[in-house]
Amino acid sequence: MLDNLQFDQKGLIPAIIQDYKTGQVLMMAYMNEEALKKTIETGKTWFYSRSRQKLWMKGEESGHIQEVKEISYDCDADTLLIKVEQTGVACHTGHYSCFYRDIEGREVEEKVFDEEVIYAPG
Amino acid sequence: MLDNLQFDQKGLIPAIIQDYKTGQVLMMAYMNEEALKKTIETGKTWFYSRSRQKLWMKGEESGHIQEVKEISYDCDADTLLIKVEQTGVACHTGHYSCFYRDIEGREVEEKVFDEEVIYAPG
């Protein structure tokens, strides 16, 4: 089924992550074929980090995992849309969604947690 | 205000387009700085076509324009989220959203129009 998808020259495909209950868009990140396979197998979102050049499971450090409810892809088959149940918050800044600023740079959504709380040791 | 944004090596930034009323994700396409400026100035979505290497206004041929309601960007400042009021349908296939297939390839959303109707001459 993954044969239908168009991964880019780097072997990546963007995945839009959406809250399955409210429809709020939470984040966008990239998957390679392995990340997508692990996402399907485990029912949790996995991504490929372009900066760290490795797979990571969303929430592996913070516990703020995403349980997959539905995966769809677009007409060009080059973008994924994944509806999830978010535990905690999606953004490493402590905001529920990564899209917390408007185009003027104003914070339009408040933090739920402080970063320090999310990534505090033990 | 656009100085905050991270355009990629090709000068592009992905823009997720979402129905402002229902929260349904309609499509994802790419903007360059000029497309984003025109989007802000005109209140309609403009994109950069990577295949045709030119700017286009969504709906310029079909009349199925998108009126911009809200623009936000994510924590990395490398993805836009644009809430719109969609006239007609977002997808050139005649579906309201481009995300009309699940990961198994099954059509999970029906067409609203036939392509032939959308792009019929005069």
Brief descriptors of the model:
two-stranded antiparallel sheet, 4-stranded mixed sheet, 122 residues, homodimer, 2 helices
Please give a structural write-up:
Two copies of one chain form a homodimer. In chain A, the strands form two sheets. Chain A has a four-stranded mixed beta sheet with strand order 2-1-6-5, covered by helices on one side. With 122 residues, the first copy, chain A, is mainly beta. The relative contact order of chain A is 0.19. The first copy, chain A, has two helices and seven strands. The model of chain A has no long low-confidence stretch (mean pLDDT 94). Chain A starts with 12 loop residues before the first strand and ends with a helix. Chain A has helices spanning 33-42, 115-118, and strands at residues 13-19, 25-31, 46-49, 54-57, 66-73, 80-86, 101-102. The radius of gyration of chain A is 15 Å and the shape is globular. In chain A, a hairpin with a 6-residue loop joins β5 (66-73) and β6. The A-B interface holds A 1, 4, 14, 16, 18, 22-25, 27-28, 40, 70-76, 79-81, 91-93, 95, 98-105, 108 and B 1, 4, 14, 16, 18, 22-25, 27-28, 40, 70-76, 79, 81, 91-93, 95, 98-105, 108.
